[in-house]
Amino acid sequence: MLDPTPVAPTIRPMRDYAIDIWTTREGLPHNSLRKIVQTPDGLIWLATWEGLVRYNGQEFTTFDRGSTPGLLDNAVGTLHVDRQGALWVGDSRGNLSRYDSKGHWQHFERELPAPGVLIQGIASDQNGRLWLQYEGKGLGHLDPGGRFNFTPPPDDLSVLLTYPGLVVDSLGQVWLGTMDGVLMRDSRGQLRRAPASFGLPAAPAWPYLAPDGVLWLVVGNRIYRMRDGRPQLHYSVDEQTFLTTMLVDSKGLIWLGTESDGLMRLGPHGLERLPEGKQLPGGRILSMFEDNEGSIWVGANGGLFRLRETLFTSYGTSDGLSGNYARSVLEDQRGRIWVGTAQGLDRMETDGRIGKIDLSAVTDNAVSVLSLAQGPDGAVWAGTFSDGVIRIDGDDRLTHYPQVQQLSSGNVRAIEVDADNQVWVGTQGGLLRISNGVVDRPQIHGLPKQELVIALGQHQGNLWVGSTEGVRVVLPDRVQRLELNQLGGARTVFGLQSVGNAMWISTDRGLYRYRDGQLGHVGLEQGLPVDAVFQLVPDRLGNAWLSSNRGVLRTDMVSLNDVADGRRDLLETVERYSEIDGMSNSQANGSSGPGAMLDRHGRYWVVTAGGLSVVDPQHLRQLRERPAPRPMLEQVRVNGQLQDWRNNPLSVPGGARLSISYVGLSYLISDRIRYRTRLVGLDEEWIERGRQRSVEYIGLPPGEYTLQVASMHPGGRWSLQAAELHFRVAPLWWQNAWVWMVAVFALLLLWACLYRYGVYRYKAHNQRLARLVDQRTYDLQLQAESLLAANQEKTRLLERLREQSEAFERQAREDPLTGLPNRRVFDEALTREFSRHQRSGHPLCLVVLDIDHFKTVNDRFSHSVGDQVLKDVGQLLLDACREGDLPARLGGEEFALLLGDTTADEAEQLCSRLQGLFHQRHDWGGVQGLTVTFSAGLVQARSDDRQATDLYQRADHALYRAKSSGRDVTCVE
């Protein structure tokens, strides 16, 4: 469980911020955002040239001349929230609009002598006056009575080039920005330039009033702070930079927007800029704003941007890594972080610098490092994809062990160094050992020899080995195999983690715990959101972090042990983190290791397909302490008609359909907010709604009701204050008292009529009996004829069922998209042909091929084009194969060719011919110019192949090498 001790907020560097982007593609009416504000109810408002935009964290709502209610003009120049929490909107024709907390609009059309130009800035003073900055005209105001006032500036003062910037300081002085310097309004109500005694340079200038009441002046590229009525130079930016906007956030950090140099921040880390790959698109930054959750919003010419602190920090090639596809991570005895990637080996020093480890002595090509380990002597061992094992000592001297490659054909996915400095190496050909510089295959009965070893670990002095066929424990006198498949069906082991007296096993069917000779299982059925997990890492706060293909999962060790012990059926809480939480890629990497770890500072590191990500669990506590999102009702509809519910209790007709939509006002991962509702007057208990943002009631009984809505962040607390809707359901006409009196009289009258009718029915009953006997006799004759017809229909139905059964049998053995034999037929044929090969010795070849970059085809041209490409490939394979060959689709973009009585040379010629046919075609899927290639692995059955799966695994490994060699090739083994 998390330690409840408060954690002081930390100031993280700019590189740790995630950037969210919205443009017209996401619903904005225009990409230039001149002003951003937040009203007390939590809503964010944006000023654009195509209307006023409201954002609730889920969607944008635009108010313009065509909306209801509508604005006076579409072009919004500025926004302002006054002391009463009302929103003021200034447009391009000098008009003003006011939106109050009750949702009501009030418009103030411009009155002479106020100019009919763009209102660039709005500020309010303590007397209730609203000061207005008119573009190129000067200063005016709207008095509390709603009347415009405007006095032209003196003739000797040019304001033709006003710059958006208008504030009223704590002394009531009005400051105005222009391209010729800052202006002030003196005690006589006249505009004048700032005193020469200020010593300000001649440059564009504008004022900024910070939330703490401090007045700042921005002059060109310099920032001045007003102290005792005089400006003092605070910071000077590069001379080539022109500052356009400024923000002092709640931590005292100064954010600076520029004309063309992007976004900067001034604070403890000095003057920071966003790192490469995170810069905002070019163009002027027009506005900045900090919301009540600490996120920084930036309005620019290219759209709306938000910078928010995220849980994870990520590193990639832009930070110095040799490649973004990270495979393993390790902290050495000096506290340095080693990272193995598909492009080499890197090391992060304790000061954060990342440098590449030179492995050129091993090979001239890039070395793909799959696994890392450190021995008692401090040396780091690196397992590679195709270059064996490399030892790096404390002076970065390399020792190469190519014998590992020769004994196992590479793929060193796990390394473990025991207390005796023996190095255990997990490869695709089983388990190897390096002892005193000698590589050998330990002759221990029960160890995997032809299996892909993925994970190694030590627990209670014993070596644990995880492979594609389960897990084994090397005991002093024997090798024990744990039968995972009998509990949950696991087969492939990805990770091994010793925690106390238990060993946790990460598999393709969740987690297993081995303790005191007993296995416990925590999988999909017990509340894990995914099947395959790669590595469990416990932290020092009681959290358990799990890496997977679908993000990083977090739960707590207490819940995991309770479920594994059977004391609880389901995990209480499992949170999933992905790119939105700052991860470079939500796909963590398995089948290599360590894929995740906890460093000496308690930080959790995980490798992903997009780089290296790290999270400090202490920072998780800070995020969890943020306030619950404030719930707000958005719309109320009765029978589909929009209602005004804010002023008086809503009256709902009896039997009507009442629909209420709501939202939790938070802009941090708003799509994960959870809701619950309670209808006081009908339900006394809260009803969990999950992420559902609306509720509907039909036919409520007459009475008084109050709907309450609460919201929460995942793992957080419910909002203390609920959003409420008070309404009354009127009775239907038949629910009135006079209606019931009439109904009672009608029932009495009906009873009398029924009695008289009953007497009449009794007299007519005897007459009907005689007719009924005759009718029943006739009915029996008809039933006999119907039975005979039914028997004939049954015979026809059985014949149709037989035909459908034959059709189903064909469908079960045929791929529905390509018409090729499916995986089931292929597996049967492979087993049959392999048995025939073993009996007769006739040659047998297998080709496994995969369409290159097929995902790109789907993403670029749509899945329908991708399906047509698969059909074209299937038809080409059918046309190119001989009569005795078996082409099949194994799934997705993977196909296979089973070639009986065929040597490897003949099969290679067939593959070459197939590649020629692929190259000749340039209209795959009906798209002109679209080319498709494939990578293939070709193998011929050998005497040491014990079963058909051995032949398939070798072909699959050959296919993997073909992909790694650049694709569009056939690798022959």
From TrEMBL:
GO cellular component, one term: plasma membrane
Domain GGDEF: 842-973
EC number(s) on file: 2.7.7.65
PROSITE patterns documented for this protein: GGDEF
UniProt-recorded Gene Ontology molecular function terms: diguanylate cyclase activity; kinase activity
Cofactor annotation: Mg(2+)
Protein name, entry field: diguanylate cyclase
GO BP terms in the entry: cell adhesion involved in single-species biofilm formation; negative regulation of bacterial-type flagellum-dependent cell motility
InterPro entries in the record: Diguanylate_Cyclase (IPR050469), GGDEF_dom (IPR000160), Ig-like_fold (IPR013783), Nucleotide_cyclase (IPR029787), Reg_prop (IPR011110), Rev_trsase/Diguanyl_cyclase (IPR043128), WD40/YVTN_repeat-like_dom_sf (IPR015943), Y_Y_Y (IPR011123)
Coiled coil start-end: 784-811
Keywords (A to Z) from UniProt: Coiled coil, Kinase, Membrane, Transferase, Transmembrane, Transmembrane helix
Annotated transmembrane regions: 737-758
